[in-house]
Write a structure and sequence with these properties.
The protein is of the alpha/beta class. It has helices spanning 27-36, 38-45, 83-101, 120-132, 146-156; strands at residues 2-3, 13-17, 55-59, 67-71, 105-108, 138-143. The protein has one domain (2-156): Leucine Aminopeptidase, subunit E, domain 1, CATH 3.40.220.10.
Length: 157
């Protein structure tokens, strides 16, 4: 776990907390599209969107990574609409796609913990459990701000 900006990570793939259109948005998604340049959006337009809990890959454009894995996490609606399972699915699908791409190192943001409102204290153990079950060599959680970092550190024990 590190505090920082996911767009600067030198890993094989970075995970984008995207929306279902894959056509850019705010937060992490907007930062990745701005830093990576138009090549990412051009490829996203060809993908036909992405369902919640699923993942799709594009080039990383000008980013130091080779790929961007776009995943859509759930909007938090109080926890009674399958949000935890969908968040887990977003992490697992991203890691499975990373393995298919041959990515040995992957950087994740705190998926769904921004404007989608998922409580970071509940999201962190889900994300970490999915990472522990993966055979991807290096999984780094790149967290923006002390609250997210502290929640992930507490969940890691």
């Amino acid at each position: 776990m590190v505090r920082g900006d996911i767009t600067t990570q030198r890993v094989d793939a970075i995970v984008n907390a995207a929306n279902t259109s894959l056509l850019g948005g705010g937060g992490v998604d907007g930062a990745i599209h701005r830093a990576g340049g138009p090549a990412i959006l051009e490829e996203c337009r060809l993908l036909g969107g992405c369902g919640v809990g699923e993942a799709k890959a594009t080039t990383a454009g000008r980013l130091p990574a080779q790929w961007v894995i776009h995943t859509v996490g759930p909007v938090w609606r109080g926890g009674g609409e399958g949000e935890r399972e969908l968040l887990r699915s977003a992490h697992v699908a991203s890691l499975e796609l990373a393995r298919e791409l041959g990515a040995a190192s992957v950087a994740f943001p705190a998926i769904s913990c921004g404007v989608y409102g998922f409580p970071v204290g509940e999201a962190a153990p889900i994300a970490l459990d999915a990472a522990r079950e993966s055979d991807v060599e290096l999984i780094r959680f790149v967290l923006f701000g002390d609250d997210a970092y502290d929640a992930f550190a507490a969940a890691a024990g």
